[in-house]
Amino acid sequence: MPQRLTFGTPPSRRFGYGDLFVLLAIAGVLYLGLRFALTAPGEVRGPEIRLTWTALPGYAALSIGRMAAAYALSFLFTIVYGYVAAYNRRAEMVMMPLLDVLQSVPILSFLPVVLLSLSALLPEGVAAEFAAIVLIFTSQVWNMTFAWYQSLTTISNDLREASAIFRFNRWLRLKWLELPFGAISLIWNSMMSWAGGWFFLMAAESYTVGERDFRLPGLGSFLQAAAGQGDLQALFLGIGALVLVVVALDQLVWRPLLAWADRFKLEMVEDQTPPTSWFYDLLSDSRLIQRLGASLAEWNERLDAWLIHRLKPLGMPETQSSQQWTLLSVGVIAALAAVVGYGGLLAGRMLLEVTPAQWLELGIGLGATFLRVAVAMAIALAWTIPVGVAIGSNQRLARWLQPVVQIAASVPATALFPAFLLIFLNLPNGLNIAAIVLMLTGTQWYLLFNVIAGALAIPQDLKHTAALLHLKPLARWRTLTLPALFPYIVTGAITASGGAWNASIVAEYTEFGGQVRSVIGIGAIISHATASGQYALLLAATLAMILAVIAINRLLWRRLYVLAEERFRME
Question: Domain-by-domain residue ranges, the chain?
Answer without folding.
Answer: 59-267+275-316+350-567
